Amino acid sequence: MPAPSKTPPTLARLYARPGFLLRRAHQISAAVFEDACKDLSLTPAQFGVLTVVQAHPGLGQSSLARALGFDKVTVLRVLRGLESRGLLARTPAQDNRRNVCVALTREGERVLQQAQKPAERAYKRLMAPLDKQQQEQLLELLRLLTGELEDEARAAFVRPGAPATRQAA
After folding, report:
1. CB pairs under 8 A, 24+ apart, for 112-118?
2. In 3-state terms, what secondary structure has residue 72?
3. 112 or 91, which is more confident
4. Quick check: helix, strand or coil at residue 70?
5. CA distance 33 to 46
């Protein structure tokens, strides 16, 4: 059996970088969520879209993208997938037919309701390695990081109803 190799310093530096760790944490978070919601065939992005649309029926696609920090291509891909499953409907806006508004269908409401418990289980599973204080600290540090560096993002994040602080990409 070969002796365990030591991680080269260049790889050790890579693996210690915040971007690497955040990306890896996101991969794990998505896998935990998708496993919890496998019976519903729901991804974290789809769950996010359904949740925002339920809270803001008739929201435009661009506002929806900003509400989730998605670029336009990503939100369009997610919307098309949900629409093909009959979970939401897109209709032209009454004031400007070039704008498209999004609303949940009855099936979308049903699936989102069914997803609540699995989504909560996924959240608890993801946070399980941390005690309560560490969980709060992690979330606070992530809010600080994303808040301070928001202008660096390629896709704007703007909560629905909040004023935009910068132009959307």
Report:
1. 112/47, 112/50, 112/51, 112/54, 114/40, 115/37, 115/40, 115/42, 115/47, 115/50, 118/36, 118/37, 118/39, 118/40
2. helix
3. 112
4. coil
5. 11
- C-alpha distance from residue 102 to each of 47, 70, 111, 142 (Å): 14, 15, 16, 29
CA dihedral 130, 35, 26, 101 (to 10 degrees): -120
CB of 102 closer than 8 Å to CB of 58: yes
CA 67 to CA 52: how far, in whole Å? 7
Q: Which of the four pLDDT bands, split at 50, 70 and 90, describes residue 136?
A: very high
User: What span, in angstroms and rounded, lies between the C-alpha atoms of 86 and 70?
Assistant: 22
Residues 164 and 169: their CA atoms lie apart, in Å, by: 12
Q: How many CB atoms lie within 10 A of CB 99?
A: 13
Distance CA 34, CA 36 (A): 5
Predicted confidence at residue 168, as pLDDT, reads 45
Q: Whole-angstrom Cα distance, residue 26 to residue 34?
A: 12
Q: Would you state the structure tokens that stand for residue 105, as one six-digit string?
A: 């269908």
Walk me through the domains of the chain, giving residue ranges and CATH numbers: 18-152 (1.10.10.10)
Q: Which strands make up the sheet holding 100-104, listed edge to edge?
A: 59-60, 100-104, 88-92
Q: In sequence order, what are the residues at sequence separation of 6 or more whose Cβ sits closer than 8 angstroms to the Cβ of residue 74?
A: 45, 65, 155
